[in-house]
Design a protein that fits this description.
alpha/beta; Rossmann fold; Arc Repressor Mutant, subunit A; 2 domains; five-stranded parallel β-sheet; 10 helices; 54% helix
Length: 207
């Protein structure tokens, strides 16, 4: 039985290139190409792909949030990020959202097709540069509690670092979304940052 593939990518040139590679493979079947997360969330579940190739930098909803939504709708599907981003924050956010692999866009045809085969066999394919970053992250000393934050604020910050949405944090902590918003505002003030990515980068820089 052929492996069914869907592509979520707004760069038409790149999606056409990858689509051509897939169509040349007798064991693969391309079931859809989507230029936005919004279209993908609406259409991909009905296409029943086995593997979904996802870019991060999409218009509107980004690829990481797209994976998180699709994973809830299609828990059996395997998600492979194919992107230019190499920063640790996006890597771990993507994996926390449900991605099983992470390739850089400069990967060759052979590397991409091998990654699809690996992810289907239960592996977690990653470009070598990405795998090194993951290893280095686990080798780093465990972070200490961020100075100045309360235990509750540290808990919220930890979940932000894992890519959870405010509503998901509220549900897990048994709080209202308004309370979580208040915690986040105080975290930003204490860490002197203005965004989730800056807050996460600051705590990881202390590792």
């Amino acid at each position: 039985m052929n492996t069914r593939i869907a592509i979520i990518e707004d760069d038409e040139g790149f999606s056409a290139l990858v689509a051509g590679w897939i169509r040349e493979e007798p064991t693969l079947e391309l079931v859809g190409i989507h230029g936005s997360a919004e279209d993908a969330v609406r259409l991909v579940p009905g296409q029943r792909p086995d593997v979904v190739l996802v870019d991060i930098n999409l218009p509107g909803i980004d690829g990481i949030a797209c994976v998180r939504r699709l994973k809830l709708a299609m828990p059996a599907a395997q998600f492979l990020m194919v992107t230019v981003y190499q920063d640790t924050t996006r890597i771990f956010d993507a994996l926390a959202a449900g991605a099983c692999g992470y390739l850089l866009k400069r990967s060759s045809r052979r590397q991409l097709l091998a990654a699809i085969a690996e992810i289907q066999s239960g592996g977690s394919p990653m470009s070598s540069q990405i795998a090194r970053k993951v290893v280095q992250s686990f080798q780093a000393p465990a972070p200490t509690e961020t100075e100045g934050l309360s235990p509750r604020e540290n808990e919220v910050l930890g979940m932000l670092a894992q890519g959870f949405l405010y509503k998901e944090i509220a549900d897990q902590m048994g709080s209202s979304i308004y309370t979580i918003n208040a915690h986040v505002r105080r975290i930003y003030e204490k860490l002197h940052v203005r965004s989730r990515s800056q807050a996460v980068a600051k705590i990881r820089s202390k590792q």
